[in-house]
Structures are given as C-alpha cells and as structure tokens.
Amino acid sequence: MTKINNAMLSAALITATTVLGQVSTAEAADSNGIVTVKSRYSVSETVNRIKGSVEEKGITLFGIIDQANLGNAAGNEVRPSRLVMFGNPALGTTFITANPLAGLDWPVRVLVYQAKDGSVYAAYTDFGWIAKRHRISSRDREFAMASQVIEAVTATVKE
Fold it and tell me: What pLDDT digit, counting tens, does each position of 9-40 carry?
C-alpha cells in the first residue's frame, strides 16, 4: 500500500477548500457535528466498500468493530452496526499536536448502521466541527484535507 503523497494531499486540499464550506460544515451544524450519508448497499457491503476505498487510498485501516455482534452476544437486540476506524497518522496526528484532546476524535471513525426502516447509513464526525470542538484554528489546511478524504471514502456508498 502506498501512503497518501503530498501531490494527492495538495489536490485534495484544493477541492476540499471549495467543497468544505458548501456542504460538510453546513450539514453537520444541525446535527451536533454528525454527517450522515445514506448508503445504497447493505451494512456488510457498505463496510466492504469503505474498507476498499480506505485501502485503495493507502490509508491505514485500524479495525472494524461489529457492534451488533457484541451487543447481541450480551443479550441486547442490536440492528446491524459496525464501526470502521482508519486514518493517515501523518495527517491525523497534526490535530493532536495542536490539542492533545483531539485524540478523542482520531483515528477517523465511520459508523455504518441499519435504521429501523431497513435503510443503511454511514455517519462520521465533521472535521470543521472537530476543529471547533477542540478550538484548533492552526490546522485549517489539514482539516480541509481530512474532510476531502472522508467525503471521498463515503462517496463510494452514497445513494
């Protein structure tokens, strides 16, 4: 796997700067920083597509937690729900260097879950919201880049 290189990150930054202010932060403002993307696939296929996109981009996949499996084994009725964790340490840890508490939001997490009506969603925390939450104003480029990456990863499942 190759890591995201500087040229790719620069291209992502240019696109993210344009898109970030128009979509991500506005959507997240009304939902406590949560961006939700409706998937056109099952939970399993959505996770596989997100995982594939992450690996294709050379991003580190830290793991997948099957929350439904854990919950059901504990005696709770849990609809399909999986937490996918990934990130680029060179990019993600720049948030931690600005404020150690940003480690609460890194690595990146995407929750893939099935709603009561059977619809499947991928949800993640908006990076603009994370920047505000941790009062980080010195990493605008990096947050824009991270926003572009998460939007590209979840676009692979978007309905």
Answer: 444 433 333 333 334 444 454 568 999 999 99
Is residue 14 domain-resident?
A: no
42: which DSSP letter? -
**Quick one: which of 49, 83, 84 has its CA closest to 67?**
83
For the chain, give the number of residues: 159
Look up residue 138 and give its DSSP letter: S
Q: Residue 99 sits in a domain of what CATH number? A: 3.30.310.70
Q: Is residue 6 part of a domain?
A: no
Give CA–CA dist 105/93, Å, rounded.
Answer: 10
Distance CA 71, CA 44 (A): 17
Its pTM surpasses 0.85: no
Strand, helix or coil for residue 115: coil
* CA-closest candidate to residue 19, choices 156, 158, 150, 144: 144
Structure tokens at 34: 């949560």
Distance separating alpha carbons of residues 156 and 135, to the nearest angstrom: 31
Strand residue runs (E) in the chain: 34-39, 60-66, 81-87, 108-114, 120-125
